[in-house]
């Protein structure tokens, strides 16, 4: 039964712009999850009186790259503002952000769902600085908090979508698409666990068919896509049950308790006037040369959704396969280079082996593609041997495992390990005959009507060959000998 309510979700995404230095000073960016506290701090990012901020040009370029990739209008002039609030990890008592005149507005992002392609509008993209980090400690019967300012002043990009997502799947896929773009344009690693990417959904529901917005809540502290899905699903169910019971949704900020699988109130939802925004007096307007913006646009790579469509058309891949191969720029580049280098292997075969056996080895080892001891040309050479019949799939997997472990040249690996495919008719006849001789009971059951046993017998024959036999030729020979055995049985009867 369909729900009487429609989900309405918008995303606020905070992405660390992974420059070498902070937004308004020359302190380096450090890994806040591993670095010693307060090792990357200066008078500017610690909020000492009289210190003046200076805009990080690289951070501005990174922000413009993302804004253009999201099809936004990049404004020639934007204004930094002070967002005033008081918290122990905010040393100045305000955060430098952008409000009335942000860097960019009016963009859009396309992504795929089970119901087809969907587009969500991007309301704004603006630059700000990050806050510090609090660590809460309980010991000796007391409770206190420690402040680490390593993260204070780190450049952040905030991306705000319109509330146009109407399912958990759409929320997840939109967030994945945003992360993919950030990684493609080289500004953010997409690591949620380390807080380098923070995705915060604004969630409400409304009666199906209505155009009025319901009361929304914002969920904080989501450090994985799984948590994002679970939190959205939980809130939709909670709000629906609340309205069905005659209650009302309260606008507030919620935290997500992943262990308990539920949201918890943190504070009432703030409004813009609560922050007392006003222009930052220590920073001039950020004025961008239109020609420079166009140079940045020209430097952008082919973006993931566009590349997905091209892969599907150019290489004849399914939408799913194209999506897997284009989700990460590094993978897409590797795949295209392998296809270009292949002489006999076609694009579909390369796609199957990149997203199948190669991904499997990477996942098992917990390794990244860039750490491989071989390149696309070596994978293409291995698949050319497979496509040309020099090795069979089992041998190719063994050769790939060796290539993955030590690198080298596929032809030499195949020769050294003796993986060459055997197509000699006499040898195939011998393997098939020995298989039937070893398993007379299974042969009799197959001839008696147990059809699935043929696959089992074929597996035994392939195993007997040490995985070297030409699978198609061996299967054909096995079927021929079994058919002959069945005919002889009928004649003797």
> How much is the radius of gyration in Å?
30 Å
How is the largest sheet built, in terms of strand order?
Answer: 2-6-7-10-1-11-12-13-14
Between the first and last Cα atoms, what is the distance in angstroms? 62 Å
Number of E-type strands: 16
Whole-number total of structural domains: 3
Number of helices: 15
The general outline is: elongated
Rounded mean pLDDT score:
92
* Fraction of residues in H or I helices: 40-55%
Could you describe the largest sheet, including whether it forms a barrel?
9 strands, mixed
What would you call the structural class? alpha+beta
Q: What is the beta-strand fraction? A: 15-25%
Low-confidence stretches: none
Describe this structure in words.
The protein is an alpha+beta fold. The protein has 3 domains: 5-295, no CATH class; 302-417, no CATH class; 425-492, Orthogonal Bundle (Arc Repressor Mutant, subunit A), CATH 1.10.10. It is 41% helix and 21% strand. The chain is built from 15 helices and 16 strands. The chain has helices at residues 57-69, 168-184, 225-244, 290-299, 304-315, 319-326, 329-341, 347-365, 376-387, 393-406, 410-417, 425-438, 440-447, 453-464, 471-492, and strands at residues 5-16, 73-74, 77-78, 80-84, 94-98, 104-113, 116-129, 133-139, 142-148, 155-161, 197-207, 217-220, 252-257, 262-268, 278-279, 286-287. Strands 2-6-7-10-1-11-12-13-14 form a 9-stranded mixed β-sheet. The chain has a 3-stranded antiparallel β-sheet with strand order 5-4-15, with no helix packed on it. A two-stranded antiparallel sheet has the order 3-16. Strand 8 and strand 9 (142-148) form a beta hairpin. Helix 7 (329-341) crosses helix 9 (376-387). The longest helix has 22 residues, at 471-492. The model has no long low-confidence stretch (mean pLDDT 92).
